[in-house]
Amino acid sequence: MHFSKTYTQILLTLPPELRDNAIQYRQLKKLINKVVLELNSLGLDPSVLSALLAAEGSVSIAETPRISIHSDSTEGKNAEDGQAPSSYSKIVYELHNDQDRIEPRLRVWKQRSATFDSSAEAVESPSSEEEPEVVGQTQNSDQSRREDAHHDLLQQLRRMKLFQDSDAVQGAAIWEEADHTSSNPTDVEEIEFEDQELVIPLLSDSAFYQLLYDAIQSLETYMNSIHADFTTTLHRLSSDIAQTARPSPSEQAAGVVSHLIPAKSDLDTWRIIFSHYIDAEIFESVSERNRGERSIEDCEQRLQIFAGKVAAIHTDTGRKTFRLKQSRVALDAFMKANLMILYIKKFQFANAEATRKILKKHAKRTALPLLDSSSSSSYPAIDAASLTVATIPKPSTSMSRILVQAIGETLLPVVPHIDDYSCLICTNLAFKPIRLSCRHLFCVRCLVKMQKRGQDECPMCRMRNVHIANRSNVDWTMLQFMQQWFPKESRQKQKENEKEAADEELREMGIDPNQSCVVC
């Protein structure tokens, strides 16, 4: 399938506002056809132009190679064979930037000298004094051939449009060679020309690059507006989720119950949703094996799996997914935000691929190369690679990654994640939290076990401060925070700590806590 059809199919899956700002691939293809016609009208079809540009590196402006004047049939044959016409010495393709306008042009240099083959059958020799009549005929014949050769050179220069009149011609190096049958040396007469430089503007090529450049500039502006709108939406969404995911009054500490907090809360549901979202790694992998952005197909599959898990929360918990209507509205906005990121990822990929394809097609159809940043030209030129910098995504600058980072920085912290408050030893909730003098946090049961084993070094920094930990090291602020935001986990951890402490006391008394009581 041609890329034009594939590009159209991708755009049809996107919202109308994205389709309207996409690169006009078909219109650029039509402009390439006009560029080809313009070059052909100048006698520079792709085969001839590629041969001229290929020879550029071997011929410098300072060189003065000799060229041989050829007939029209020879010139046509060279063009058909893909060889460069011998009347050019150098040709350079430039992209000139003039006040935000791109002006492609060809800069052509004319060779300094020309070689003419003489078909003379006789030249001046030491025996000319003995045969004056023959010498006179020979001199007249030589003069006639010189004039014919000079006239042919002027005619060809006019045909190549490098000179407008014969007055511009100041001389040419005309070399006359004797006939192969003659053993006499060749007489040489030199007439010098000045170098002629010609700048040919390519109007159709200018329209092509201007359309592409304007499209990319418009695309960059549109991407910036999308980023601003997305950031505003995230801040509004985070505020809505914060209102519906606050701890319920029954879970507040005594004396701090606020009437602003709703009687119902969807805190647990939002925590489950965000936990599934983090585990899904929809748009970017954080694992060591395949770290980085995921492909579009992988993102679509993972987003569908995540949506299925959200829909299954009702089945898993045996109750309604949300208690509050505001939560359902916020969830719908959250899913639309992720779907928008997927659309942006498709949009950027399609435009980057369209830009790459159209530049490649331009170079192939016209034989005009893409300039690079290493191009050493004394004239201001635009780097063709910069035309694609706005659409070809890089891992650190792609819009989809920026939006994903915005979700992680703005939205996910609204609901505290239990992994951020877990004990570094047992990996469960650090309840009751003990903060050592080195500021590392552990649960009370793990530190009690370390003290009984005589382990005095902090598991994180190896500072000797475990044995001096006591009730004063309890982080009461963190304890209250855990009771508010993780009420179920706190109660479960409290029960586990009490049971474990009771079992240790029984073992110290020599009683197996796992043995059932037998009444005699």
TrEMBL record:
The keyword Metal-binding applies. SMART domains: RING. GO terms for molecular function: zinc ion binding. Residues 423-462 form the RING-type domain. The keyword Zinc applies. Residues 1-376 form the SPX domain. Residues 66-85, 118-148, 489-515 are annotated as: Disordered. Residues 489-500 have a biased composition (Basic and acidic residues). Keywords: Metal-binding, Zinc, Zinc-finger. InterPro entries: SPX_dom, Znf_C3HC4_RING-type, Znf_RING, Znf_RING/FYVE/PHD, Znf_RING_CS. This is SPX domain-containing protein. It comes from Pterulicium gracile. The lineage of its organism: Eukaryota, Fungi, Dikarya, Basidiomycota, Agaricomycotina.
